[in-house]
Amino acid sequence: MQINEAFATEIKKVLGDGRVMFHEPMKAHTTFRIGGPADCLIFPSSMEEVRQVFALLDRYEIPYTILGNGSNVLVRDKGVRGAIVKFNSPFSDIRLEEGTRIVAGAGASLKDVSVFAAEHGLTGMEFAVGIPGSLGGAVFMNAGAYDGEMRNVVAKVRSVAPDGSMHEFQAAELELGYRHSIFQTNGHAICEVELKLVSGEGSTIRMKMDDLTRRREERQPLEMPSAGSTFKRPTGYFAGTLIDQTGLKGLKVGGAQVSEKHAGFVVNTGDATAEDVLGLISEVQRRVFEMHGVKLYPEVRIIGEE
Ligand SMILES: Cc1cc2nc3c(=O)[nH]c(=O)nc-3n(C[C@H](O)[C@H](O)[C@H](O)COP(=O)(O)OP(=O)(O)OC[C@H]3O[C@@H](n4cnc5c(N)ncnc54)[C@H](O)[C@@H]3O)c2cc1C
Questions:
Q1: How many CA atoms lie within 13 A of 113 on its CB side?
Q2: How far does the centroid of ligand 1 lie from the alpha carbon of residue 141, in Å?
Q3: Of 18, 130, 238, 303, which residue is the least packed, with the fewest Cβ within 10 Å?
Q4: Cβ contacts of 73 within 8 Å, gap of 6 or more
Q5: Residue ending a domain, choose from 89, 123, 145
Q6: Do 84 and 130 lie in a common domain?
Q7: Of the candidates 217, 244, 264, which is a domain's last residue?
Q8: Whether residue 236 sits in one domain with residue 213
Q9: Cα separations in angstroms, 142 against 23, 31, 46, 178, 199
């Protein structure tokens, strides 16, 4: 069903005017700076609100997509029909529990969580300081970098299922694997995450975070919009190395380009469309397969109307 006046009135009653937007260009909400309009963009701030939002979407038969910070997505040019339920700043409380546990809202940024951990002398989240995602998105993707991944630190996750029921998952139930979690199949909205960290030395933690930040700045095209690594790591290879060896650094389709700095990244040179990025992805897949016989699969999640 389409978004109509009655739904607009009711959703504003749940969230207030400031946390609902209509016909909102998604290029303003993704790190790729690409994407057509979402019919409706909703920013919940609590599990109870998520439950109410889901009930309303269900009643009006409006399809929805969940988003965190939009740092691992490509939104198509026609945009997203229905609603996007976006987890960011309104859902980003971070608190310390039992000395070594951090409980945070799914919308908290990984950077803020890592810094909070360092400030409390807790080690384990240093790897995440430069990943520009939300905590919920990081659990969904089992984000990882250098010597760490979410799997090593997540203790519990509280979520809301599409039918509005609330759930709590223990770490062992999350099916965390390479860029995979149970949330990729069950459709739940991750709302709150509990991390189990270890006491450490504040200055050592800080030094490691600074070192990882420096390494990232040296190697990754952080000055240009992107969604990070475009492709998953094929078993036994590195996507970036394969793309580089195929001679594709700098290859362009429209405004999308294989980064000159890191072949694993597709960057937006300024006016790229999703169509450009998809065209470039296909071309890279084709040429890498031709030269190396290896199939590359996107790590970036592609959403929106085809
Ligand atoms: C410059 C750059 C560097 C990067 N470096 C890394 C890296 O080193 N390692 C790495 O793993 N990734 C990296 N990424 C990719 C990205 O930051 C991670 O995948 C991150 O975890 C995505 O989080 P997000 O909040 O932006 O998720 P989004 O991009 O908003 O969403 C990604 C997926 O998660 C789902 N999702 C998001 N939030 C929720 C929620 N609360 N509940 C249920 N589902 C949800 C969405 O539906 C979507 O399918 C990088 C990206 C960029 C731009």
A1: 37
A2: 6
A3: 18
A4: 30, 32, 35, 67, 227, 300, 301, 302, 303
A5: 89
A6: no
A7: 217
A8: no
A9: 31, 19, 22, 7, 23
193 CA distance to ligand 1 middle (Å): 15
Give the CATH number for residue 109. 3.30.465.10
Confidence of residue 129 (pLDDT cuts 50, 70, 90): very high
Same domain? 10 vs 125: no
Q: What are 248-265's pLDDT values in tens digits?
A: 999 999 999 999 999 999
Task: Write the single-letter amino acid at 15.
Answer: L
pTM of the model: 0.97
Q: Report residue 174: phi and psi, to 5°.
A: -85, -10
- Count: domains in the chain: 3
Per residue in 78-90, pLDDT (tens digit) is 999 999 999 999 9
* Cβ–Cβ < 8 Å for 117, 145: no
Pocket test for ligand 1, best of 71, 213, 217 (most atoms within 8 A of CB): 71
Q: Are residues 129 and 183 in the same domain?
A: yes
Please name every residue paired with 85 in a beta bridge, in sequence order, or none if there are none. Answer: 42, 66
Residue closest via CA to ligand 1's atom 49 equals 301
Average of per-residue pLDDT across 166-195: 97
Is the same domain home to 189 and 272? no
Question: The domain that contains 10 carries what CATH number?
Answer: 3.30.43.10
User: Is 156 a residue whose pLDDT tops 80?
Assistant: yes
Report the C-alpha gap between 306 and 78 in whole angstroms.
Answer: 7
* Structure token digits, residue 174: 């999350």
Is position 229 annotated as part of the catalytic site? yes
Its domain, for residue 147, covers 92-217
